[in-house]
Amino acid sequence: MELDRRKMQILSAIIEIYTKTGEPVGSKLLASVMDYAISPATIRNEMAALFEMGYLEQPHTSAGRVPSHKGYRLYINNLMQTQPLTAAEKAEIDALFNIQHPDPDQLVEDAATALAQATHCVTVSSTMTPEDVTVRRIDIIPSGPRTLVVLVIASNGVVKSKVCRVDFAVTPQVLDFFRKYVNSRFRGQSLEGVSKLYLQSVAVALGEYSRVFTPLLVCIFDLCRQIYAGRYYVEGETNLLTYQEFTPVAHDLLTFLNKRDEMLRLINEEMKDKNVSIGKEAGKSELADSSIVIARYNVGSSRSGIIGIVGPVRMDYPKLIPHIQYFADTLGRLLTEISEEEDITPETSSSSNE
């Protein structure tokens, strides 16, 4: 059966009504919304045809219809008219990022939190480290007689720090020697190339001092691997509780969203060529009643991360898709500016941890 212009018009109207109300749509309501340009009887016939074609579903307790996942996919691919952001909406997003000298990791996390608040959905975000990212600088800062803070600053602007306890007296001469040595060995080295084998070669070259400085070298290695692995954030989990369709599945859904590896595999493989995954398309039972909308962002010329939302299938796609894309574009632009700064001081780090 052919999906003609009238059927597409009716499908679009049903989706738009259902997005707002969350209730099955009947022919009389649909006719009133369409200013009775089409009679209720004709609409019922067209709805029956759309149901037979798999674009609509009928809840057991209602005479109305709701869009199927197939119907949503047709709508997003062929029928939807996105709503460009207004100048006021862009200014509101820009204001969220109005931070001087932000830490890149904190910036991504704050963006995820802000997006969750703006969309009333759960936000997922992930940073991916391009292969060409290198160690820009390593700094060692004394914080006690036998305690040091190790900072690794990468060429993409990411700063990681960690407290390290040592078995030797911390003196300016020792610090100056070690700082110069590790920078001569690590500066310009790709994060991907900072392997255990490379670490061993750096330690061996220290000769008799290798045992003394091993804790610091291991600390540098751990920080490099952390930066290379990227970060994954889930924010706004409580927003799910505001949607009645998530009440019976909220626990399972949140458990799945916090499985970093599975979510990244879904985004990078199943969603490789699209920015929206609708319900059962993801092939995961936990996501059967959810949609994922993502936008990818670049730092410089390299694809560096994603930010997106998880919410009900009946979300407002025409509004949310451009909203998320602008969020991602703004985030990418700011991270690019950070990565291009020539001088990054240790004070930009806010991620020290024991």
Overview of this protein structure:
Helix 2 packs across helix 3. The protein has twelve helices and ten strands. It starts with a helix and ends in a 15-residue tail after the last helix. It has helices at residues 5-21, 27-33, 40-52, 69-79, 87-96, 104-119, 172-186, 196-205, 210-229, 250-257, 260-270, 317-339, and strands at residues 56-57, 66-67, 122-127, 135-144, 147-154, 159-165, 232-235, 276-278, 290-299, 302-312. Mean pLDDT is 88; it is low at 342-354. The chain is α+β, with helices and mostly antiparallel strands. Strand 9 and strand 10 form a beta hairpin. The chain has a five-stranded antiparallel sheet, with helices on both faces.
Jot down its keywords:
single chain; alpha+beta; five-stranded antiparallel beta sheet; three-stranded antiparallel beta sheet; elongated
Number of helices: 12
Provide the spatial order of strands within the biggest beta sheet.
7-3-10-9-8
Residue fraction in strands: 15-25%
Shape: elongated
User: Mind telling me the C-alpha Rg?
Assistant: 26 Å
What percent of the residues sit in helical stretches (DSSP H or I)?
Answer: 40-55%
Could you tell me the number of beta strands?
Answer: 10
| Element order: H for helix, E for strand | HHHEEHHHEEEEHHHEHHEEEH
End-to-end span in angstroms? 65 Å
Low-confidence stretches: 342-354
Largest sheet: 5 strands, antiparallel
Task: Kindly name the structural category.
Answer: alpha+beta
Average the pLDDT over all residues and give the rounded result: 88
